[in-house]
Specification:
disordered C terminus; FAD/NAD(P)-binding domain; about 200 residues; alpha/beta
C-alpha cells in the first residue's frame, strides 16, 4: 500500500507515524510546503488524558514528550487581581517546533519519507499521486485542497466574533494559567508557557 500525506504538521506526522507502525510494509510520504523547522504557532498543550493516549499509541514519542515538555498539575485563574488555583489537573506544554521536531524524528525512525519545501498543486493531487492508494490532506484550516473540494467534503467556514485568545510568553509560570483582565465575561486569555524550549514567534 502507498499513502501520500499532504501537510507535515502534527496531525499529518502523527498519522504517518502510527500508520507506519501498524502497517510496516506500507510506503508513506509526507509533503510539507515549509521547511522542517518552520511553524506558524507558538505552543501546544496536552492534558493527562491525551498523554495517556500517546502512551498507548506510541510509547517512544510519549517518553520524548514527557522529557521535553513543561508540566503543570494546577490550573490558575487570574481575574481582576485575584488568583484562584484548581488542583488535580495535569497538563504538559512545549513550543510547537519542539513537537514537530520530535514527531519528525519518530517518523524517520520508523521509515516514513518526509519531503519539505514541497508544494502540492491543489488542482491536481490525484494526478500527482495517481499511484497512491490513499491521499490524506492534513494542511490545517487554510488548506487549498479542502477549499478546492469544499463541496465534495462538505466543508464550510463560518466567521464569528472571537472570545478566546491563545497567548505565549517566555515568563515561567507555576500553573496552567488563564487571564481575564477585562470586566466583560466575553474575553479570556489562556496562557500556556513553555519553560524548557524557546518559543518561536508565529
Amino acid at each position: 500500500m502507498k499513502i501520500a500525506v499532504i501537510g507535515g504538521g502534527p496531525g499529518g506526522l502523527y498519522f504517518a507515524l502510527l500508520t507506519k507502525k501498524r502497517m510496516p510494509n506500507c510506503t508513506i510520504d509526507v509533503y510539507e510546503q515549509n521547511r522542517a523547522d518552520d511553524t506558524f504557532g507558538f505552543g501546544v498543550v496536552f492534558s493527562d488524558e491525551t498523554l495517556d493516549e500517546f502512551l498507548s499509541a506510541d510509547p517512544e514519542s510519549y517518553e520524548q514528550v514527557r522529557a521535553n515538555f513543561a508540566y503543570w498539575t494546577d490550573i490558575a485563574i487570574e481575574h481582576r487581581g485575584e488568583r484562584t488555583l484548581v488542583g488535580g489537573n495535569g497538563f504538559a506544554g512545549c513550543s510547537r517546533v519542539a513537537l514537530l521536531n520530535l514527531l519528525q524524528e519518530r517518523c524517520h525512525a520508523v521509515g516514513v519519507h518526509l519531503h519539505f519545501e514541497t508544494t502540492i498543486d491543489a488542482d491536481a493531487p490525484e494526478a500527482r499521486f495517481a499511484d497512491c492508494d490513499l491521499i490524506l490532506v492534513a494542511q490545517g484550516v487554510n488548506s487549498p485542497v479542502r477549499a478546492k473540494y469544499a463541496d465534495a467534503f462538505g466543508a464550510r467556514v463560518i466567521e464569528q466574533r472571537n472570545k478566546f485568545a491563545w497567548l505565549g510568553s517566555t515568563r515561567p509560570l507555576d500553573a496552567f494559567t488563564f487571564f481575564s483582565p477585562a470586566p466583560t465575561r466575553d474575553i479570556s486569555a489562556p496562557t500556556p508557557i513553555n519553560t524548557r524550549k524557546a518559543i518561536r514567534p508565529g
